[in-house]
Amino acid sequence: MVSIVEELKGKLAELDARLEEIKAEALALESQKAAFVTVIKVFDPSAASAAPQQPKRKDRSTPGRRVTDLLRGRDVRRGVLEILRDAEEPILAGDLSKQFAEREGFGSEIGGLSPNLAGRFSGLLERMEQTGLVRSSGASDGRRRLWEIAR
Description:
The protein folds into 2 domains: 1-57; 61-151, Orthogonal Bundle (Arc Repressor Mutant, subunit A). It contains 6 helices and 3 strands; from the N terminus they run H-H-H-H-E-H-H-E-E. A 3-stranded antiparallel beta sheet has the order 1-3-2. By secondary structure, it is mainly alpha-helical. The termini are far apart. It has helices at residues 2-43, 45-50, 63-71, 76-86, 93-104, 114-130; strands at 91-92, 134-138, 145-149.
């Protein structure tokens, strides 16, 4: 009986993982669709009114969940270290997250998520500082921190 329950739990976990993948893919497709509509409007403004409009579903995902979906499957730690290594001077977490997004080709997918993405990178940088990979210093405004590779 216990093995059946364990198998069912395993199957449930697989289904949850698959649903998350589908949600992430749906978000990416919605972003691509929006980009196509924007380009079409630029070249043919009359086509926008002729294009069939589907009712928009209310996006129930949180910004934090969307950031998680965007970063899933990416080697964020390595990307952060590469950006810091290439930077000529210490960099803010927000600027680092923007460079990472550009490097990964997020494009319109990060619209409205920049603060959440920067927050995620701040947390990662703090954990990396604890392990000695990076170090921080205070920015000129006294509220934020500048990050660099610990040499």
